[in-house]
Design a protein that fits this description.
Number of helices: 19
Structural class: alpha/beta
Number of strands: 17
Radius of gyration: 29 Å
């Protein structure tokens, strides 16, 4: 604890020592003997740290500090140290019983690689983020989760925790991976904020009792999540709309590998997927807590080589995934999956997993393809939402459009709360929307200028003189007015539009 506590309220000293289990008996004023003892105790200096992970050239684990070879000793004390279960089995038994069973299973190898990849985040100067295995029950998601926590011997965490609880959990798992099970147990109104928080790597700012700022929790995590629904689907049950930033920070990977065995593609010699899942969970429970520290030791001892390899693997992954010209959102996720692939390949080089070269890379590419297929054809979720919003307005508010060419209709029969006009030219139909209606109603929650730009780029609105509005005179109006003219192509279904540009299977 900071030595400044000796000059202040000694109750703070006693409070911390009592919390850690020290029994103190004194006939004098509480804390006097303890404070005197501490004031004259060892002068050895340590640097206190609030989270696990990289600190200068060393890596702080929950139970020890891994020092870089040839570097002056760096002494760290981990504050609020979590309980550290003793490792079970050996690295060799983990490799044989767990890692080798993952071979031929893209989701399992991806889960292991994700668990190890948090160690590389700071070296790659990348942000945190989550991967979410989504699918129905009995697919094998729990087995994948148990495999993912086995390198570190950590406990499987639950989404049911509060935001404050997740902050502490994230800080205790910084740099060493985190697996959170069953998103459906979380509050749908709060889980979006929790996803933001975990991926942003920083907790809420708070004040100490004296009003001064308390240092917020910070962490570096590539975490794995599971659930029967996506983040967007779960939030919708609470009446909350998901934001694109949340979906980028927690990306969906279909748990079903598509070969009729749920999450698995290769059950080796276990007969049925259920038997394989049970055997895998038993093996993960009996052999854990060895692979993660071994991975850290290898990376710390070979830091410069690993940093160089991160760049090499990133470029290779981006080329193989064909995302060089993709939207920024797609590239952002691709960089994360590339780092996960890199972690798996480094573990292969370190002889931790027993996998062949490129197995982890191929597993990450397979999972990335799963995410990309569920994303939008353009690659930008905001653009698709803009089109969907305009499409929905035209479909739902069709009764608010008066005929463009019928000037002699009785005023009493005209539309109340008119949004604009509808004009038919041959087989084509256009919807003329008043600009103020377009900006305030159609684009609620979106930037109207961005929506117009997206529609113009896709040829879904008419332009005139470089502007996204057109001056026209409906028959029932005394003079010309400006309109956002939406083409009926907006009503083409999203799936049909995507299918037209999709390659044959």
């Amino acid at each position: 604890m900071p030595r400044s506590y000796l000059a202040g309220d000694r109750a703070e000293i006693l409070r911390k020592l009592h919390d850690l289990g020290l029994f103190i008996f004194s006939g004098r004023e509480p804390g006097t003997d303890v404070a005197a003892y501490l004031a004259h105790s060892s002068r050895d200096r340590f640097t206190s740290v609030a989270s696990t992970g990289w600190h200068r050239s060393s890596f702080v684990l929950p139970d020890r500090v891994v020092q870089a070879p040839g570097v002056k000793e760096e002494r760290y004390l981990l504050m609020n140290r979590p309980p550290v279960p003793a490792p079970r089995g050996t690295l060799n038994t983990w490799r044989t019983e767990v890692a080798l069973r993952c071979r031929g299973n893209s989701r399992l190898q991806f889960a292991v690689s994700t668990s190890l990849a948090s160690c590389l985040l700071q070296l790659a100067h990348m942000e945190s983020g989550g991967q979410h295995f989504v699918g129905g029950s009995s697919l094998g998601k729990t087995s994948a989760a148990q495999v993912a926590v086995s390198p570190w011997g950590a406990n499987l965490q639950q989404w049911r925790a509060t935001d404050n609880g997740l902050e502490g959990i994230a800080a205790r798992h910084s740099g060493i991976g985190l697996v959170i099970d069953e998103i459906g147990q979380s509050d749908p109104r709060m889980v979006g904020g929790a996803a933001y928080m975990l991926a942003n790597g920083r907790g809420k700012g708070r004040a100490n009792r004296d009003g001064s700022d308390r240092q917020a929790h910070e962490w570096h995590l590539l975490f794995l999540s599971t659930g029967e629904t996506t983040l967007a689907e779960h939030m919708a049950t609470g009446g909350v709309k998901v934001k694109t930033g949340q979906e980028i920070r927690l990306v969906n990977v279909e748990a079903d590998a598509g070969v009729g065995m749920g999450l698995f593609e290769n059950i080796h010699d276990d007969g049925t997927p259920a038997r394989f899942a049970n055997a895998l969970q038993e093996a993960a429970a009996a052999n854990n807590g060895t692979a993660g520290p071994a991975f850290v030791e290898y990376v710390v001892a070979n830091r410069a080589k690993c940093v160089k390899y991160i760049t090499t693997m990133r470029d290779r992954f981006l080329d193989m995934a064909d995302v060089r010209d993709a939207d920024g959102q797609v590239q952002r996720v691709a960089h994360r999956f590339a780092l996960i692939a890199t972690a798996g390949e480094i573990a292969t080089r370190a002889k931790i997993t027993g996998w062949d070269e490129n197995e982890a890379l191929q597993a990450a590419l397979t999972c990335f393809d799963s995410w990309r297929r569920s994303w939008t054809p353009s690659g930008s979720r905001e653009e698709e939402r803009a089109v969907e919003r305009v499409r929905a307005f035209v479909q739902q508010q069709a009764a608010r459009f008066d005929p463009f060419d019928e000037g002699d209709i009785e005023w009493a029969t005209r539309t109340r709360d008119r949004a604009g006009f509808i004009r038919r030219t041959g087989d084509a139909v256009e919807y003329l929307v008043f600009p103020n209606v377009f900006d305030t109603e159609v684009c609620t929650g979106l930037r109207a200028s961005d929506v117009r730009r997206v529609l113009a780029e896709r040829g879904l609105i008419r332009q005139s003189g470089g502007k996204n509005t057109v001056t026209l005179k409906p028959a029932s109006m005394p003079k010309k007015d400006r309109f956002v003219v939406i083409r009926d192509a907006i009503l083409d279904s999203h799936d049909d539009a995507a299918a037209e540009g999709a390659p044959d299977a």
